[in-house]
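Posting this for the archive.
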Amino acid sequence: MTFLVLERLSKQFGEQIAVDRLSLAVGKGEFVSLLGPSGCGKTTTLQMIAGFQPPTSGAITLEGHDLIAVKPAQRGLGIVFQSYALFPHMTAAENVAFGLEMQGVARAEREARVKQTLALVGLAAFADRFPRRLSGGQQQRVALARALVIQPRILLLDEPLSNLDAKLREDMQIELRQIQRTLGTTTILVTHDQSEAMALSDRIAVMNQGRVEQIAPPSEAYERPATPFVASFLGRTNVLPVRGSGNGHWMPAAGAASATITIRPEKIAFAPAGQVDALSGTIKTRIFQGNHWLYQVDTPAGLVIMIRQNTGEAVPAEGEAVRLFWRAEDMVPQAADGART
């Protein structure tokens, strides 16, 4: 069932269009990420949902009711910012309790909910600590607990993990997804981190220059990108010129091309002896990355990136001639204007 609806939502600052006719329907309990590069409009979209920015045009409805007409403090939303925004003079428990105090929740209930929420985020033993005595990850958990304790209708996350180191960020991604599934809170995440969006989300809305280019589950957006931008933003990909072979197949083209295709590096393999349909090339670069090798291969169709898992077997060296192949179903044809063919 549709819970939150953004309909042709736009925001303009002077002559600059930050968000351009964005439409998105979010189901109750769903985790949706707004993903894109800096300046694509994702944070502005979140601010319009929160009420911090009024839309230039369009509508926002929550359970069928106009959300734009509701004051920000009365929208019942929980928000976690990139900077944590904790009160330095308050303990973890006092920070978490702040929103409940503003709501006039009775002390006994307030204390019980704070205790329960701190336990949920793994900070039961840190209730009396001030922010300066907490690590970055612990401060982020306090910020999350403060947003969750008010039992929000929607949880809004604005780049909440970007200040954490890589290992801690991965750990927090797992914890955040588990907490969201436990509570069933409808959640909207703003991020520029592709792996984070794919790890956490039920669906991803990939944004570019104020517009949504694709809304899909992570696996679908990755495997079947709707546009070259989506293909390139969601991990590494190859964009190759191709021409029709006349029998319904696409063949890499060194010269004039009738279209382009995208193909993921991990879908490409070295052709075995006797393979007929293969692309010849020479290995330009070979980089060892632990569990896999990353190759750059010069071909008549351009530079091709491919990944080969590290199986312990001998691998081709730089300067060696190779032939590449992939399955037809792993190619995604793209039209010249960027729309999928």
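The mean pLDDT is 90. Helices lie at 42-50, 92-102, 107-120, 136-148, 166-183, 194-200, 218-223, 228-233.
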